[in-house]
Q: What sequence folds into this?
């Protein structure tokens, strides 16, 4: 009987310990998040003043062209994409136009954007689906748009936000990833995990503009490979800036 009691006591004790560790971990995570959230708000307030008119840099005349431009922008600068689409979008305007493109010709037309074979395949396939299944209109939900070839969460967030004002996440491109890491908000490399962390730190009302604000700051000051921390208005709030400039600030 005594052995049985001891057995149950041990089980309960171990379970309590596991629960205590679990809840204390959650508490620590919550505390970390709220610390990040406070600093994130301060950083964003400064950067919003610095880049008040921030917006997508890609040029397009309709939602199909927006989708195509975003697909072309993978591993390519927006400047180069705009150079290529200036002529491309005079020729291709609708989903049907892109779906009917000649593969060899289209590959050459977008060649300077890089990964031109895969991009051609994805654009023609996506526009074919949009033409047939969505009556020529870019789908307006995350679930549907993610089924298109070549469309992952970054593209989906950019297109849904700019085409329909639908904000279900944060578009994480190379600038957003670099700045989020340097600012100490994330450590990982996976864009989906970075997006989840940023969504937990920033309020939803800031998600859409955040991408373009960080991109502007990344192009102007927080450049790759070397940031210009000495010119940065948020250096005192950024662990990388504090370290590189030898500041005394703590947060
Ligand atoms: S302080 Fe430096 S690393 Fe931090 S955001 Fe500014 S430029 Fe980037």
A:
């Amino acid at each position: 009987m005594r052995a049985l009691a001891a057995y149950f006591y041990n089980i309960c004790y171990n379970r309590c310990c596991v629960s205590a560790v679990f809840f204390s971990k959650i508490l620590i995570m919550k505390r970390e998040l709220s610390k990040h959230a406070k600093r994130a708000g301060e950083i964003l307030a400064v950067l919003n003043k610095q880049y008040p008119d921030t917006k997508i840099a890609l040029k397009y005349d309709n939602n199909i062209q927006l989708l195509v431009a975003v697909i072309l922008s993978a591993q390519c600068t927006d400047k180069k994409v705009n150079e290529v689409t200036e002529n491309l979008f005079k020729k291709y305007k609708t989903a049907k136009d892109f779906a009917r493109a000649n593969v060899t010709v289209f590959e050459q037309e977008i060649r300077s954007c890089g990964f031109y074979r895969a991009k051609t395949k994805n654009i023609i396939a996506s526009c074919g689906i949009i033409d047939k299944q969505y009556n020529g209109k870019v789908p307006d939900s995350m679930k549907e748009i993610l089924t298109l070839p070549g469309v992952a969460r970054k593209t989906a967030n950019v297109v849904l936000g700019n085409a329909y004002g639908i904000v279900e996440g944060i578009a994480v491109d190379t600038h957003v990833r670099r700045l989020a890491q340097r600012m100490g908000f994330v450590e990982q490399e996976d864009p989906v995990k970075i997006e989840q962390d940023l969504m937990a730190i920033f309020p939803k009302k800031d998600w859409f503009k955040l991408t373009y604000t960080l991109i502007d700051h990344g192009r102007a000051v927080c450049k790759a490979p070397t940031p210009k921390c000495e010119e940065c208005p948020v250096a005192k709030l950024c662990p990388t800036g504090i370290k590189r400039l030898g500041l005394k600030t703590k947060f």
